[in-house]
């Protein structure tokens, strides 16, 4: 039996364009950040989030009405949205910022997502995003969004089971030393861990179809959000080069070297 319209779910998936995980990171000559003139791709944890949204629809069939992806970034971020659309998302929103602007901070991203959710006429039932971005490793956006919205949250998810009939999500999450199971009422914010799934490769037909899917373009000002950074990066530099170790012939020689280095709190057995 086809689910009633009131029970259809809408899923929102925020994604980020980041330096590709396989690129060796280098500090730029100005020491203001890293060199961005390298290959970029979708943040791997966000790719897992897109995959999970598509899998939820595959499991629930007609109970999911739409999957919408959103990104906040420069014009080139549209490529990331097209990748998500090719994976199975239905439509996209691009909150465009100038190429020269710094990447928005987690609180700014969370406020932008809140404004986007509030303007969705059909509502949003599930927001699923990566637990962190591999560029800043902040891991804060999902939690901040849940706090701003007053929604349930389940972070570091390794399994997600959605009950569309009862509007509940059962989430298994990774914690230190084991797993924790949560039962969350919708609407809910879920952040994905590495072991949740393995993202699919977009097929050529789906890549071609993605070119015809709609991308709505907005500015932060359209949403009444100020993305001005609250933090200032003073300087970025690479860690000091590691110095090779040396060999000693016996324990006495080792103790002598440690003593010369100013380490004296060592007792012989």
Quick synopsis:
This is Electron transfer flavoprotein, beta subunit. The protein has 269 residues and is α/β, with parallel strands linked by helices.
What distinguishing features does this structure have?
269 residues, Rossmann fold, two-stranded antiparallel sheet, 25% helix, 26% strand
Give a written overview of the molecule.
The structure is a single chain. By secondary structure, the protein is an alpha/beta fold. It has six helices and eleven strands. A nine-stranded mixed beta sheet has the order 9-8-7-10-6-1-4-5-11, with helices on both faces. A two-stranded antiparallel sheet has the order 2-3. Helix 2 (78-87) crosses helix 5 and helix 3 crosses helix 4.
Class of secondary structure makeup: alpha/beta
Mind describing the biggest β-sheet? 9 strands, mixed
On the 0 to 100 scale, the average pLDDT is: 89
Low-confidence stretches: 1-5
How many angstroms separate the termini? 76 Å
CATH level 1 name: Alpha Beta
Rg of Cα set: 23 Å
Q: What level of helicity do the residues show?
A: 10-25%
CATH superfamily assignment?
HUPs
- Tell me the number of structural domains: 1
Strand content: 25-35%
Task: State the helix count.
Answer: 6
Give the overall shape. Answer: globular
Question: CATH topology, anyone?
Answer: Rossmann fold
Instruction: Report the count of strand segments.
Output: 11
* H and E order: EEEHEHEHEHEEEEHEH
Major β-sheet strand ordering: 9-8-7-10-6-1-4-5-11
The CATH architecture can be given as: 3-Layer(aba) Sandwich
Protein name: Electron transfer flavoprotein, beta subunit
């Amino acid at each position: 039996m086809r689910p009633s319209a009131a029970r259809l779910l809408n899923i929102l998936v925020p994604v980020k364009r980041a330096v590709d995980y396989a690129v060796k990171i280098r500090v730029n000559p100005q020491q203001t950040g890293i060199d961005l003139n390298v290959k970029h791709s979708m943040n791997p944890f966000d790719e897992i989030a897109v995959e999970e949204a598509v899998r939820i629809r595959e499991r629930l069939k007609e109970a999911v009405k739409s999957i919408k992806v959103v990104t906040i970034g420069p014009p080139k971020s549209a490529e990331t949205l097209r990748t998500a659309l090719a994976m199975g998302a239905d439509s996209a929103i691009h909150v465009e910022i100038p190429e020269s602007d710094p990447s928005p901070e987690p609180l700014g991203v969370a406020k932008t997502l809140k404004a986007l959710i509030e303007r969705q006429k059909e509502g949003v039932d599930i927001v699923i995003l990566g637990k962190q971005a591999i560029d800043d490793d902040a891991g804060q956006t999902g939690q901040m969004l849940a706090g701003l919205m007053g929604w349930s949250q389940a972070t570091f998810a390794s399994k997600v089971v959605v009950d569309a009939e009862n509007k509940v999500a059962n989430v298994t999450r990774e914690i230190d030393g084991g797993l924790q199971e949560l039962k969350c009422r919708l609407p809910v914010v879920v952040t994905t861990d590495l072991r949740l799934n393995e993202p699919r490769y977009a097929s050529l037909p789906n890549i071609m179809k993605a070119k015809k899917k709609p991308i709505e373009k907005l500015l932060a000002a359209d949403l009444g959000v100020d993305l001005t950074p609250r933090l200032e990066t003073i300087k970025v530099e690479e860690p000091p080069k590691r110095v090779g170790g040396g060999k000693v012939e016996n324990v006495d020689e080792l103790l002598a070297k440690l003593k010369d280095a100013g380490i004296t709190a060592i007792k012989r057995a």
